[in-house]
Description:
By secondary structure, the protein is mainly α. Helices cover 57% and strands 0% of the residues. It has one domain (12-87). The protein has helices at residues 14-26, 31-50, 57-68, 75-83.
Amino acid sequence: MTAKNTRLDIRTTKAAKDMLEQAANALGTNLSAFLLDSAMTRAREIMAQSQIIYLNLKEAQRFAAALKNPPKASEKLKQLFKKHGTKQHKHREKT
């Protein structure tokens, strides 16, 4: 288990704190554990959503076509790959 050695402080109203404490008590946990669990659950949801790209049918078809038939790399792009030491995939010709 990773040591908890970083502190997080928040400011809130008394009413909000009371409600959060009641919710934590209802789950049989303490306020810190309740807040951390709730915030981490929401953070994971947000991060998962930010990883998804939504496309309509036309956009999805254009994207799939670009993957199947990528344009040839320009000389400028080839130079950038070379400069940054990034491997280039060979463009496959249609057979």
